[in-house]
What does this fold into?
Amino acid sequence: MLELRNLAKHFAGIPAVNGISFCARPGEVTGYLGPNGSGKSTTMKMITGLITRTSGEILFEGREVAEDWTAYKRQLGYVPEEPYLYTHLTGLEYLTMVAQLRDLPERQTRQRTEALLELLGLYTDRHAGIAGYSKGMRQKILLIAALLHNPQLVLLDEPFSGLDVASALVLRSLIQRLAAAGKVVLFSSHELDTVERIAARIVILHRGRLAADDTIDNLRTLAAQSSLEGVFAQLAVEQDTEETARQIAELIHG
Amino acid sequence: MAKLEARWALRLMSNAMARVSRHFHVLWKQFLLRIIDLEALSIEADVEQYIGQFAGVLLMISLMQALGNLVFPPPLSEAWKFEQSHILTMMLIVGLIAVLTWDGQFPDRRDALILGPLPIRPRTILFAKLAATAAPIGLAILLLNGASSPIIALVFARTSNWPRFFFSYWFTMIACSLFLLCTLLAIQGVGAALLPRRLYIRLSGLLQLGAYATVLSAYFLLPTLPTHASMVAVDNLQLVGLTPSYWFFAMLNQLNGSLPADMQWLAWRGWLALGASLAGALASLLICYSYTMRKIVEQPELIPSRKAYNWRIPLGSSLTGTLLAFCWRTLTRSRQHRIILAFYLSIAFAVWLAALHRALIAPGLRNFSIELPITSTVMMVFVVMGFRNIFALPISLTANWILRTTQLRPSARYITAVRRTLLLLSVLPVLLVTAAMGLTYRPLTLVAGHLVLLTLLGIFMVDASLAGFAKVPFTCSLLPGSANFQFTFWATFGGLTLLLAFLLPVEVEALHHPLHFLWLAAGMAASCITLWTINRWLAAKAELYFEELPEEMIMTLGL
It folds into this structure.
């Protein structure tokens, strides 16, 4: 289980994440939602250790992750929000490098990498430079790199970004299967329909604070809304969306 | 009515001009900034200071030349030697800038996709790109000759001809710079227009390296021909006739009115070459901007590669193997890294060529002399320095997260792997080349002794250059904006002179006396071991450092 206790991150004294606490359990997908700038990606980066926290605790399997970062990183698979890769490498070279850095056995890794590239439709482009890849192709490389070592904790920050419909459907099913295999899956997305379909539990962040942490059914009941979109709009959307759209259209039309 | 129409037309034209001018200014600034790739600089770097330091070095060279010529005026008989040397230096500087901005004058995919949909005329983009390239070249011409040209004119021109010499000098400097720039532009333009885009991109890197090596080799290897007799000598006729720097030297003297009649053809060759290069560059640029931009967009982004091209460095999946593969791929595929490394390697290459040239002139076995230690030491210094400096040029700071999230080994192991990588990439090739060169010297025992000392020098240099370097290559920057380039340049120059002038004679003397040699080798080995021990001690406590956008930056941007 992944547990966050009073986790906070301040940038130059301004809180980006303000004392949040929640758990992501094995065997279920935890959806992590919030508007832009609410602190989702900052939380993800703190969990991966990419940025240091200002305060609070992050526990995995009951142990503070900072006690043994190396052991923790072995169990971690992470897909970041932006597909930043070493674009001068080919897809296969990048994945081979990641596998070597993770100290994975060579033969098994090669077979697994090639099979994953084949399944995700990248096999024919494996020797092409990542610089020429589309956003969706880069996203697939990130996914393979995150899952290559069979991690116990899977952090997915906007994993559907740029994926075509077929790949998105594959990923949706894959996320559920990963959770079913007993992994901890924390999954952040703006695609509320998808989150509603695959997540068992929802954590909503608003202005760096926890706005909700419950099952989807409970949230719907509590907010008296029929969909997750309605719940989200009630908890985390402050602006009148229709009015904003009208004002923008007026501005454009002069 | 006609008046109204004229006013309307005038206003339309003036609006169009203002728009074009605004477009030009915006684009010019952007393209100029691209020349100094901001990603190559540290986030803490100061671009203006960075440019200022380079400008300072050029100005200092010009001032030193001016002062030297003023205090110790060379005899008039040496005028040709000086003129040839100045033309060659000018061509070197312009050549280096032109090679560094390689492809920068032609539209790339970024231009085609971003600027293509905007209401900007291709010719505005072309002029902005040309202006962005012309700015550093113009500045270099001005800085390199600004201080020295009046003095040179005073020293080498007869008093009555001073203004004529001064004008001729400046004209020739600009002409030879234009010739070189336009020739390189024409080569790139023809390639870009005729070849499929993907093939051209691959070939372009090789052409760039070839141009780099040619410019540097020409500077280091071309002889100065200081007299009329040597210029028209039958043995030199082919060299003089085929080498542009001699054409422009003849042009200078033709403009100055001091060119002998039997060398006029050389000057005309210069004029012809200047005209041809200008026409070639203009034609290729026009073709590229009217045709290639469309071609870039139309060609597919990705062509599946069918061949299995996943070669591996045979070091297994060890960390050294992984880092070595990463370094090798970065060096061979990143234009920016390749070209900066080529600067250092070309010096080593030129020194090697000079040695080879001497060996070819006098074939057969030679007695061991200081020549081999000088050549190999210069090669070792520049190759190690080159690789070490290039390690500090990041490839993509935003992609560093993967190295951070996959760091499962202690930092000390990474530091050891980086050391081995640097040894394999820099020291080993120099040793192999030196060993091959050494086969032509006798006795071989002295060559072997020198190889031992050279190995120790290489190891020492690697360990000294990596002291405190707790980083993976290409993940952090050297802070070039805050590093004192002027100091580094002159310190390297002074240090190398010291090494060559004082320490190498000591080495050669020691090689002839076994006891002295043992003492020298033991001393160097002790230094290496000490440095290695200190580095290991530092590495055991070090944390790997990765440069990324600092958190504070996010807040100052107000995101």
